[in-house]
Amino acid sequence: MYRILKPNGLLIISVPNEKIIYLNPLHKNFLTEFYRFDFNKDKIKKYLKNYFVIKNWYGQRFVKRIYANPLARFLFFVGGLVSGEINRRADIIYKLADGPTIKPLLYNNTRYLIAICRKKDLK
User: Fold this and answer.
1) If you ran DSSP here, which 8-state letter would residue 20 be given?
2) Phi and psi at residue 112, to the nearest 5°
3) Strand residue runs (E) in 17-121
4) Closest CA to 64 of 13, 118, 109
5) Those residues with Cβ within 8 angstroms of residue 63's Cβ, 6 or more apart along the chain or in another chain
6) DSSP structure class, residue 95
7) Across the beta sheet with 52-62, what order do the strands follow?
8) SS3 for 23?
9) What is the greatest pairwise CA distance in the chain?
10) What are the extents of the domains in the chain?
11) Has this prediction a pTM greater than 0.85?
12) What would the pLDDT profile of 53-87 be if each residue is shown by its tens digit?
Protein backbone atom coordinates (compact mmCIF):
# COMPACT_ATOMS: atom_id res chain seq x y z
CA MET A 1 0.00 0.00 0.00
CA TYR A 2 2.80 2.38 0.87
CA ARG A 3 4.64 1.74 -2.38
CA ILE A 4 1.72 2.51 -4.68
CA LEU A 5 0.34 5.59 -2.88
CA LYS A 6 1.45 9.01 -4.10
CA PRO A 7 3.35 11.24 -1.66
CA ASN A 8 0.97 12.39 1.08
CA GLY A 9 -1.51 9.82 -0.31
CA LEU A 10 -4.62 8.83 1.59
CA LEU A 11 -5.26 5.24 2.73
CA ILE A 12 -8.70 4.15 3.89
CA ILE A 13 -8.92 0.69 5.41
CA SER A 14 -11.84 -1.23 6.87
CA VAL A 15 -11.23 -4.33 8.96
CA PRO A 16 -13.33 -6.54 11.26
CA ASN A 17 -13.14 -5.56 14.93
CA GLU A 18 -12.22 -8.63 16.93
CA LYS A 19 -13.73 -7.08 20.07
CA ILE A 20 -17.23 -7.20 18.53
CA ILE A 21 -17.19 -9.54 15.54
CA TYR A 22 -17.83 -12.60 17.72
CA LEU A 23 -20.24 -11.53 20.47
CA ASN A 24 -20.88 -15.20 21.13
CA PRO A 25 -17.54 -16.76 22.17
CA LEU A 26 -18.79 -20.18 20.99
CA HIS A 27 -19.13 -18.86 17.43
CA LYS A 28 -15.50 -18.57 16.33
CA ASN A 29 -15.71 -19.22 12.60
CA PHE A 30 -14.97 -16.41 10.17
CA LEU A 31 -17.85 -14.14 9.32
CA THR A 32 -17.25 -14.21 5.56
CA GLU A 33 -14.88 -15.80 3.10
CA PHE A 34 -13.13 -12.44 2.65
CA TYR A 35 -11.74 -12.05 6.17
CA ARG A 36 -9.02 -14.30 7.49
CA PHE A 37 -7.66 -12.02 10.21
CA ASP A 38 -9.37 -9.89 12.79
CA PHE A 39 -8.03 -6.66 14.20
CA ASN A 40 -8.45 -4.20 17.00
CA LYS A 41 -7.24 -0.59 17.09
CA ASP A 42 -3.89 -1.52 18.65
CA LYS A 43 -3.13 -4.13 15.98
CA ILE A 44 -3.99 -1.70 13.19
CA LYS A 45 -1.76 0.97 14.74
CA LYS A 46 1.08 -1.54 15.05
CA TYR A 47 0.91 -2.56 11.38
CA LEU A 48 0.56 0.97 10.03
CA LYS A 49 2.75 3.06 12.35
CA ASN A 50 5.96 2.82 10.31
CA TYR A 51 4.39 3.96 7.06
CA PHE A 52 1.18 5.86 7.82
CA VAL A 53 -0.24 8.40 10.25
CA ILE A 54 -3.79 7.57 11.33
CA LYS A 55 -5.79 10.78 11.06
CA ASN A 56 -9.32 9.63 11.93
CA TRP A 57 -11.20 6.58 13.16
CA TYR A 58 -14.67 5.61 12.03
CA GLY A 59 -16.89 2.62 12.53
CA GLN A 60 -19.50 0.72 10.58
CA ARG A 61 -22.34 -1.40 12.00
CA PHE A 62 -22.40 -0.28 15.61
CA VAL A 63 -23.65 -2.57 18.37
CA LYS A 64 -25.33 -0.95 21.37
CA ARG A 65 -22.69 -0.42 24.03
CA ILE A 66 -24.64 -2.45 26.59
CA TYR A 67 -24.13 -5.56 24.43
CA ALA A 68 -20.46 -4.83 23.77
CA ASN A 69 -19.18 -4.60 27.34
CA PRO A 70 -17.31 -7.56 28.87
CA LEU A 71 -19.96 -8.34 31.50
CA ALA A 72 -22.75 -8.52 28.91
CA ARG A 73 -20.57 -10.70 26.67
CA PHE A 74 -19.90 -13.05 29.59
CA LEU A 75 -23.62 -13.23 30.44
CA PHE A 76 -24.45 -14.02 26.79
CA PHE A 77 -21.80 -16.74 26.88
CA VAL A 78 -23.21 -18.32 30.03
CA GLY A 79 -26.78 -17.85 28.83
CA GLY A 80 -25.89 -19.45 25.51
CA LEU A 81 -24.66 -22.54 27.35
CA VAL A 82 -27.96 -22.79 29.21
CA SER A 83 -30.39 -21.80 26.48
CA GLY A 84 -30.25 -21.84 22.70
CA GLU A 85 -32.91 -19.11 22.74
CA ILE A 86 -30.53 -16.67 24.47
CA ASN A 87 -27.90 -17.56 21.91
CA ARG A 88 -30.37 -16.94 19.09
CA ARG A 89 -31.46 -13.55 20.48
CA ALA A 90 -27.85 -12.42 20.93
CA ASP A 91 -27.21 -13.35 17.31
CA ILE A 92 -30.24 -11.28 16.22
CA ILE A 93 -28.98 -8.25 18.19
CA TYR A 94 -25.64 -8.60 16.46
CA LYS A 95 -27.12 -8.96 12.96
CA LEU A 96 -29.56 -6.07 13.40
CA ALA A 97 -26.91 -3.65 14.63
CA ASP A 98 -26.79 -0.29 12.86
CA GLY A 99 -26.62 -0.83 9.11
CA PRO A 100 -23.87 0.26 6.77
CA THR A 101 -23.75 3.85 7.98
CA ILE A 102 -20.30 5.26 8.75
CA LYS A 103 -19.93 7.23 11.98
CA PRO A 104 -17.02 8.65 13.98
CA LEU A 105 -15.66 6.02 16.37
CA LEU A 106 -16.35 7.14 19.94
CA TYR A 107 -16.35 3.72 21.62
CA ASN A 108 -15.08 0.28 20.68
CA ASN A 109 -18.55 -1.00 19.74
CA THR A 110 -18.45 -1.38 15.98
CA ARG A 111 -18.22 -4.49 13.82
CA TYR A 112 -15.83 -2.84 11.38
CA LEU A 113 -13.05 -0.38 12.19
CA ILE A 114 -12.22 2.21 9.54
CA ALA A 115 -8.92 4.07 9.67
CA ILE A 116 -8.20 7.13 7.53
CA CYS A 117 -4.43 7.39 7.13
CA ARG A 118 -1.86 9.62 5.43
CA LYS A 119 1.29 8.23 3.89
CA LYS A 120 4.42 9.20 5.87
CA ASP A 121 7.37 10.79 4.14
CA LEU A 122 10.17 8.35 4.97
CA LYS A 123 12.98 10.51 3.55
Assistant:
1) T
2) -125, 130
3) 52-62, 102-104, 110-119
4) 109
5) 20, 23, 93, 94, 97, 98, 109, 110, 111
6) H
7) 10-16, 110-119, 52-62, 102-104
8) coil
9) 59
10) 40-119
11) no
12) 999 999 887 776 666 667 776 777 777 778 777 77
